[in-house]
Specification:
By secondary structure, this protein is of the alpha+beta class. It has helices at 39-48, 83-91, 106-119, 130-138, 156-159, 195-210; strands at 12-13, 17-18, 26-27, 29-33, 52-54, 57-61, 69-75, 95-100, 144-151, 163-174, 178-186, 214-221, 236-240, 243-246.
């Protein structure tokens, strides 16, 4: 059995593989294990240093000759609610996001499969089985939560939870300075709702309610259409050689 030290993290480098964002580029990642009693503190430090979490692994790009992946976080206190954002927020006023401990369900996996098939059929996650999905949700040593989005029902004013079909899911880490959106997905057959946007706006409001200054959105890649949407959420900060600086 492989043992991973819990006091001093060990970092490893992956072999080159095709970049999923920029055609013709090769990607490499540096990664470490998030295990043991210090996993939460380590996840905090590494996320603030540009790492992302996947299960009990923290990773960041370490590509040779390419620095296109830029870590992005939204500034909550002075977030700019555009007219478009306000319209989308009102359009989804009938949704309730219910927070729970991370536990997979058949409904989640069904929605996850529909989302992948519609949005990322050629992506690296397209062949994930129900067991793979369960591990993505459950396999963690850090403080994280699952948020399920459903429409309000007749009893929602009593229960505080939504009812009916599952429309969106977010797996989110709670950090000392913000919320980190580890992975989110939503109903692909409801384009008028702009659910991807709604989930981010909801996280901005959740972070505000918790007194947390940031929402971490992962990586933005200039020139990648898959990442264009992240630039809409302003103001935001980008991580560079001199630390986190306002995006220009």
């Amino acid at each position: 059995m492989t043992r991973h030290p819990t006091d001093t993290p060990q970092f490893y480098l992956t072999a080159p593989s095709p970049c999923p964002y920029l055609e013709g580029q090769q990607e490499r990642k540096v990664f470490t294990h998030l295990v043991g009693s210090r996993a939460q503190a380590l996840n905090d430090v590494l996320t603030q240093g540009g790492f992302r979490r996947s299960q009990n692994i923290a990773y960041r790009p370490a590509c040779e000759g390419c620095k296109a992946c830029v870590s992005v976080r939204v500034r909550v206190d002075d977030f700019h609610w555009t007219r478009s954002f306000r319209r989308q927020w009102r359009r989804n006023a009938d949704l309730i996001g219910t927070t729970s401990t991370p536990a997979p369900s058949a409904q989640q996996y069904d929605l996850f499969r529909r989302y992948l098939d519609a949005r990322h059929a050629e992506g690296g996650m397209s062949d994930m089985t129900v067991l793979d999905y369960a591990m993505m949700i459950e396999d963690t040593h850090v403080e994280t939560m699952l948020i399920e989005y459903r429409q309000r029902g007749p009893d929602s004013f009593l229960t505080g939870t939504g009812e009916g079909p599952l429309l969106g899911v977010a797996l989110t880490d709670l950090l000392s300075d913000g919320l980190s959106m580890v992975y989110s997905y939503f109903e692909p057959n409801a384009p008028s709702r702009s659910l991807g946007t709604h989930l981010i706006l909801d996280h901005v409001e959740r972070a505000r309610a918790l007194g947390l200054p940031y929402v971490y959105l992962g990586y933005w890649v200039n020139g990648s259409p898959k990442m264009d949407y992240k630039a809409r959420f302003q103001p935001q900060e980008h991580l560079g050689p001199d630390g986190w600086l306002p995006a220009t």
